[in-house]
Amino acid sequence: MLHTLSGRLALLLFCTLVAVIAGYGVLTFRGSQAHLNEANQKLNRDLARYLVDANKLARGDEVNRRALSKLFANLMSVNPNIEIYLLDEDGTILTYSAADERVKRRTVQLAPVREFLAGGSMFPLMGDDPRDPSRLKVFSAAPIPPQGKPEAYLYVVLSGEEYESIADMLAESRLLRTRLFAVLLSAVLLLAWFLLFWSITRRLRQLNRRVEEFRRAALAAPAPDSQSTTVAGDDIDQLEATFAQMAQRIAEQVDDLKQTDQLRRELIANVSHDLRTPLTALHGYLETLMIKGG
Fold this sequence. Notes:
- This protein is of the alpha+beta class.
- Among the domains are: 113 residues, 2-Layer Sandwich (Beta-Lactamase), CATH 3.30.450; 70 residues.
- 62% of the residues lie in helices and 11% in strands.
- It is built from seven helices and seven strands, in the order H-H-E-E-H-E-E-H-E-E-E-H-H-H.
- Strands 4-3-7-6-5 form a five-stranded antiparallel beta sheet. Strands 1-2 form a two-stranded antiparallel sheet.
- Strand 3 and strand 4 form a beta hairpin.
- It is rod-shaped and about 160 Å long.
């Protein structure tokens, strides 16, 4: 199949199709993740500020540790999808709602936090994940105290570890379904491409078959009717018309050569006959003279 033009074209377009489907799947998956992160952060942008105000975490210029501990306990049971961290003015994690062994970072970069608090930034705005140094997550943040120079920051990770585990399971299931759909779609499109190319290259195969038949017939096969293919069409029509004219001309030249060869043979036979009679008579005269001379 790969030795034919249609086979190579079908393989090329199939590989292109697979690459496009794979690229589309990757872009769609990443785009959906970015969309979910953006929606999550926009919906919860004021969550940290609300927690600071509603739970009275600021007591003067200091952090109300008792209210903070109570907040940690309540949120662990009410909404385990978020994680809360208290940062000092340098980004060092002072306390958190997670277990000690689960937190891998001891500091959080404050540049995204300050950008978030300044407002006007494009979402999703990603910040450090204290549980995984290699990952970034969407967050909400609020200064403590709300006015004046911040003494600390309430840093709320909006997609906690439990949320991520469930999201990863759903993503794997969705990715599996996407792969199965891509395989089925590729098979259907491959079949469609094959049928399409078979239809497009049908006339080309017919022309190739006619050329091969003409060659096997020692260039003496009846030439195609050039009058039926002189109408200008696509490239294959023009190629077919050119071959028909060429085949007709070759066949005529072969016939001319055969006629010329036949005339040559007749000429040689006639000349040979005309020369044979006087040569025979001359040969007889010579023999007679030789006998008389002897």
